[in-house]
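Cont'd.
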Amino acid sequence: MLAYHRPTTTEEALALLPNATGTVSLYAGGTDLLPRWTRGIVPWAQTVVDLKRVHELRGVARDNGEICIGACTAMSDIESNATIREHAPVLAEAAARIACSQIRSRGTIGGNLCNASPAADTAVPLILLDATLELARLENDKVERRTVPIVEFFKGPGSTALASAEILTHIRVASRPSTWLAKWDKFGTRPSMEIAVASVGLALDLSNAKVQDVRIGYGSVAPTPLRGRAAEEVLKAKPLTEESMNQAVDAAKAEISPISDVRASESYRRQLVGVMLRRMLERARNS
Amino acid sequence: MQETLETVPFSCVVNGEPVTLAVSPRATLLDALRDKLELTGSKYGCGEGECGACTVLLNGKPVNACLVLALECSGTDILTIEGLRENGNLHPLQQAFVDHGAIQCGFCSPGMIMAAYALLESNPTPTKQQIERSLEGNLCRCTGYRKIVDAVQSLADGVTSHA
């Protein structure tokens, strides 16, 4: 690394990107990037643009019924934020299960998403919440912003919809009715410091004994975090029955595409997703 | 071609003392603490945030000093295991580790103590479960976890705040 920059505005950060020396890296919590550099897994970026002091990228705000989360908000702040705990508790619960307190103090929600790991712990909760991501770039020296639905943000392992000189600035989620219950769970061999073998999220509005609205998401079982549209479809607009739950489990196992790796085999992951979804549906029905 | 890395100066507060350091842009906070300030209580274990042996408090929050660039710490307040000492005496939390035999080889102890200190600062009366959770990022390869949790729990009625 030759140059370390610490801009305080998004405009300043964006202006650094086209003129930087050599390879450039946007840097937030550093909990993934820094050990890759120090351990020689990837070469150091020659220019590091640290985004943590960009004021608008930090903190959580209410905005027209939406919750607006700055991309550089640390996981420990997501976990403890009163607005998120009240209006999007599934996100707070997922943040609280990432790694350990030391990592959560530094790691940011934007970093978790921009790393684009299929196992990113905040991705599936944000899919349940229909999050939209706000991206900023410079055009003719002016900050231009666009929004991308979360399911369109992930393109593959380590790959996102971000253009080369673009920054993820905010994550927006809408408040939900109180009948809307969302749960997310990950499976691993230990409760902490664990990269999910598989994760499943389920959000349901079960008012009047019928599935009024449903969102399903999966992590670590496809090239990207995945929305479970096929499993959602078989549950929609009917009561939760043995039959519909079985169909949803079958649909879930069919729409994922897990791989075998050091943490688990493809067939184990497929089985696991079925079991996890089944248990979540049963719990929802019995609650 | 080898990059020439010029050192960059920055200032922060370490254990209550303002310090100005000149470090390579690639230096981690742990490098700066150990090699520049000779504060070798914080240990290098894994270098990737798995073991917690380098845990220090950065602006009051527990962090792995190996996962923070030194330059990121400009203007911050850092507390290391060396800063817990009060008037030449061990901090009550350090004393509790001694009294409970919560130290075997001692390599994980500074990190364990700093992680537990962070917990007790934010929650002076944690449950056993909360203590265990606060230490989830700290490995003890002598596997002495039970005595470590006991030591922290003995202080759970309120640790004297560090001035």
